[in-house]
Design goal:
The protein is α/β, with parallel strands linked by helices. The protein is 28% helix and 27% strand. Bound molecules: pyridoxal-5'-phosphate. Residues 38-281 form the Orn/DAP/Arg decarboxylase 2 N-terminal domain.
């Protein structure tokens, strides 16, 4: 069942009246459905049943401790990209033996922290990084498990900013991958555990995932000639969701079925996936209040109290988010309007020239599918305190992160 739906004309998150939450915590705020997070995880886990696998939640999508803890309890590991995320993962109770560490710019301090926390492995993105991990592991008298992150360079057909293939800074160019594996083999403190290939984000077709696994398997098999026997194949994240009314999310059951077939004769591999958006995006919404309406040069603007500082995806990627009224109107008159925030930037918008029922002053709106890359990418630009985060379970809701105060804005200055 959808986590967000109307009952008697009011938008609910599970069984909680979002309007009531708004009255309690003020606007803007994020609201999440506990059940939706869990359903997403279970759906993916079930789709992968039959292939040995670990789901490492890409916590950069939403690393609130309560959300993170929820996934950890369901059995998720974590895909982290910084020492800060490692710190949060451990605090949230994620099993270190299920943590993988990606990112092109790991620092010495972060590598040491990860080794001493006994994470599952590093996803290595360059030779100098590999050398540094080898050196640090040597000094710590440890063996560092790594996966070489390979960039197969094919186009996953997604937005340029979230396309991590050819021409991006990520991974090791496919033409050099074998050489890097061979090099890693002679490093004394490196255990070559696997191969990693994340191809991009918000991919809604099954094709790119299948192609990624095929290429990974073929490389993994060819490494046997070098005496390298991988244990893990990590295909990264990127499972896409439906942001628009008429879109469909990626079919994880199809992806799971094809993976199972492809892996039938390669049972030694444990599959790792690193979904972020798929697990968290549709579980959350950003709730905001209409402050004013105005017209300029014939264009209608609805000005709300949330802005790009709270949810930057529309500004950054031109991303589409559905915008729903918390209370439905009887006979909505759809007009072309732009929904914009209070931040002093022209790029501060949630919708541009969208045909929708025009909300009135004081009305509440929900910007949907904001559970991933929403709060996580928020900022204090324009000295705006970050919004509160609320988690719903059934008809109850609790604040899982307090709204920042003005005092928070000057902390440390
Ligand atoms: C961002 C990222 C993910 C998660 O991407 P989603 O599209 O949110 O699933 C996984 N792995 C790596 C390496 C990433 O950079």
């Amino acid at each position: 069942m959808e986590a967000f739906r109307y009952m008697n004309g009011k938008l609910r998150c599970e069984n909680a009246d979002i309007g009531k939450a708004a009255a309690a915590v003020g606007t803007p705020f994020y609201i999440y459905s506990r059940r939706a997070f869990a359903d997403n995880f279970r759906r993916l886990d079930k789709a992968l049943a039959g292939s040995r696998h670990i789901i490492c939640y890409a916590c950069k999508a939403n690393s609130n401790l309560s959300v993170f803890r929820l996934f950890a309890r369901l059995g998720a590991g974590a895909d982290i990209v910084s020492g800060g995320e490692l710190y949060k993962a451990l605090k949230a109770g994620v099993d270190p033996g299920k943590i993988v560490f990606a990112g092109v710019g790991k620092t010495e301090d972060e590598i040491r922290f990860a080794l001493s926390s006994r994470i599952l492995m590093f996803n290595v993105e360059s030779v100098p990084e590999l050398n540094l991990i080898n050196d640090i592991a040597g000094k710590m008298r440890r063996k560092a498990a790594v996966a070489v992150r390979v960039n197969f360079g094919f186009d996953p057909h997604t937005h340029g900013y979230i396309n991590t293939s050819r021409g991006s800074k990520f991974g090791i160019d496919m033409s050099m991958a074998r050489g890097v594996f061979a090099y890693a083999k002679v490093l004394r403190n490196i255990d070559i555990a696997g191969l990693h290939s994340h191809i991009g984000s918000q991919i809604t077709q099954t094709g790119p995932f299948v192609r990624n696994l095929r290429m990974a398997l073929s490389l993994a098999e060819s490494l046997k000639e070098l005496g390298i026997h991988l244990r893990f194949i990590n295909l990264g994240g990127g499972l896409g969701i439906a942001y628009r009314e008429k879109e469909s999310p990626v079919s994880v059951s199809s992806v799971g079925n094809i993976f199972r077939k492809l892996l039938k004769n390669s049972r030694r591999y444990t599959l790792i996936l690193e979904p972020g958006r798929f697990l968290s995006a549709n579980a959350g919404a950003l709730v905001t209040k209409v402050l004013y309406a105005k017209e300029s040069f014939g264009k209608k603007f609805v000005i709300v109290d949330a802005g790009m500082t709270d949810l930057i995806r529309p500004s950054l990627y031109g991303a589409y988010h559905r915008i729903l009224p918390l209370t439905t109107v009887r006979s909505p008159l759809a007009t072309v309007v732009s929904v914009v925030g209070p931040v002093c930037e022209t790029g501060d918008f949630f919708a541009l020239d969208r045909k929708m029922p025009v909300p009135g002053q004081g009305d509440l709106l929900a910007v949907m599918d904001a559970g991933a890359y929403g709060f996580e990418m928020s900022s204090n630009y324009n000295s705006r305190p970050r919004p509160a985060q609320v988690l719903v379970s059934g008809s109850r809701f609790s604040v899982i992160r307090k709204r920042e105060t003005r005092a928070d804005l000057v902390r440390g200055e």
